[in-house]
Structures are given as C-alpha cells and as structure tokens.
Amino acid sequence: MKRMSIFLVFLMVIGLNFSTTSDLQAAGPHIVTTVAEAKASGIDAEVELSGRIVKMIQDDKFLFSDGTGELLVLIDGKMQDLNYENAKVVVSGLIAQNFMYTEVKADSIAVR
Fold this sequence. Notes:
Pfam families: BOF (PF04076). This protein is of the alpha+beta class.
C-alpha cells in the first residue's frame, strides 16, 4: 500500500512538471519594456526600452530613463560624437547585473 502511494505521488509530480513546462514554452520569451521591470528581472532577460538619455557618462555608457526609473546602458564601441543627452531612444539588449545596480548591455540603440 505504501509503495502504491509513493508511486501515485510520483506520477502526480511528473504530470505537474510536464504541464508547467508546456505552458512556459507556449508563452514564449518575455521581453522587458520598462526600467522597473528590468530591475526586477533576472540576468540575460531581453529588453526593449523606450525613453530618453539622461546623461552621457562615457563614450560607451549612459544613464537611461523611461519614467519608471533609471539604469545604465552599456554599448560595444563608442557612440558617435553627437549630442545624445535628452534624446529619445529605443534600447534593445540584455539585462546584466553589476554589484550594486542593474544595467543593460545594448545590442542596438535607435534614436526616435
């Protein structure tokens, strides 16, 4: 009788695992669209943020805001020597965690 109970519990756990996995796969990847969501998301979450550049920190780093918060955006290489401060942009990339704050490693930045 005890073996039968363990076997039934085992089957229920496997069934729950399969249904949860299929639900997640059907939903597809979630793309983060706000700074507030980005700060709550895990590393390597995809982002597509619309907002503005608050301040250029270096040629490859700037402070971004969308009204829900601010975060650092890192880019490969240098941004062109244009004045981007207060420019409205769309940033696409991945979340990266630093020791004390959330940042985005940008794949692309488009000025709107």
